[in-house]
Design a protein that fits this description.
25% helix, Rossmann fold, alpha+beta, single chain, 6-stranded mixed sheet, 365 residues, OB fold (Dihydrolipoamide Acetyltransferase, E2P)
């Protein structure tokens, strides 16, 4: 197990004049982890990695790398490497000279720096393009060269600020495979900024979901998707329907669901319920049952009207509106949709089980 590359942010905040970009950020990324900061534009994720790299000042709080406080250290003294979104390659230098540039600045002899640069180009499968200029490369190839240039400095942490956003969808999938493979081979700490939940889920050991300068949830990709802990997280990652209802606790710690326009049965205990009251909850779209299926072992059922049907290959997205005006999505596997066949304008019954209700804990933000 890699013992270097642990990053800790303690009460880190950032202001741009009166504008608060980050609020008391608390985060630990263990050595060798692939961590993705996930959120919409303006949530503070890029600001966070730029502060870790030293390219942005910290307003308050501390940043530690392997227990060493680097909050005020210059970028060159931090043992971090930041890959920019536009790759920032020198257009007049060949690939091998781009990769070797930092060694040239450090005074490493030409033969040695060229040899090391070729090793890292080999690692990212770009050695055959060593003599090429950046404008002779595709976007994905440029990214590989930029990654080799970052790795040659032998940092403890690689920081990636939306590195895949400029690539077409097919190449994006290929490059994220390469990133994950290289990270695993080197057992290095990667902190990766993205607004794509698909990208974060495919890459990360740890996902940090952010909104308006605050952390909403820190968890594994599976935990974030299966149990989002706020309505924002559920809505941002997609594939979830968000509801609210009154929950009445019973003496056996089970609860009754009172939801307008719904026919509901009693449910078992839930640790997020701290007493009777109104709570928000989410239900995954692929757990919503439709038509006759909704009558089979479903604990909550609502009447709705189909408004739109979208073909998505392996599944069909059926958009509905309930009798009380709530928008509900159901993701139906294509083979089952062919049996059920709901069309826009058709009235249907939607339902779900108590076990598929992800009840949001009381918000503490």
């Amino acid at each position: 197990m890699n013992s270097i590359g642990k990053v800790e942010l303690s009460a880190v905040g950032k202001y741009y004049g009166p504008v608060e970009a980050l609020r008391d950020m608390e985060l630990t990324v263990e050595a060798g982890e692939y961590c993705c900061l996930l959120g919409p534009s303006g949530c503070g994720k890029s600001t966070a990695v730029r502060m870790i790299s030293g390219h942005e000042d910290v307003t308050h709080g501390d940043i530690l790398l392997d227990g060493r406080n680097i909050t005020d250290a210059p970028p060159a003294k931090r043992k971090t490497a930041l890959m920019f979104q536009n790759y920032a390659l020198f257009p007049h230098l060949s690939c091998v000279n781009n990769v070797a540039f930092s060694l040239k600045i450090a005074g490493v002899p030409k033969k040695d720096r060229t040899s090391q640069a070729m090793e890292f180009l080999e690692l990212v499968h770009m050695s055959e393009y060593a003599a090429a200029l950046p404008d002779q490369l595709s976007g994905g190839q440029q990214q590989r060269v930029a990654l080799a240039r970052a790795l040659i400095t032998k940092p403890s942490v690689i920081l990636l600020d939306e590195p895949l956003s400029a690539l077409d969808p097919f190449l994006r999938v290929q490059m994220r495979k390469e990133l994950r493979k290289i990270q695993k081979e080197l057992n290095m700490t990667f902190i990766h900024v993205t607004h794509s939940q698909e990208e974060a889920f495919a890459l990360a050991d740890k996902v940090v979901v952010m909104s308006k300068g605050t952390i909403q949830q820190i968890a594994t990709p599976r935990q974030v998707f299966e149990t989002p802990n706020t309505p924002f997280v559920a809505g941002f990652i997609g594939g979830h329907n968000i509801f609210s209802a009154h929950f009445e606790l019973r003496p056996d710690n089970g609860f009754e669901v009172v939801m307008e326009g719904a026919c509901a049965k009693g449910c078992g205990a839930n640790s997020n319920l701290k007493g009777s009251g109104t709570y928000g909850f989410s239900v995954r779209a692929d757990r919503i049952r439709l038509g006759k299926e909704a009558d089979q072992d479903m604990d909550i059922a609502v009447e709705a009207t189909v408004t739109l049907v979208e073909y998505q290959g392996a599944h069909i997205v059926v958009h509905c509106v309930s009798a009380t005006g709530e928008d509900i999505q159901a993701h139906i596997p294509d083979d089952r949709y062919n049996e059920l066949g709901p069309e826009p304008g058709q009235e249907v019954v939607l339902g779900w089980s108590c076990r598929d209700m992800n009840i949001f804990p009381p918000y503490k933000g």
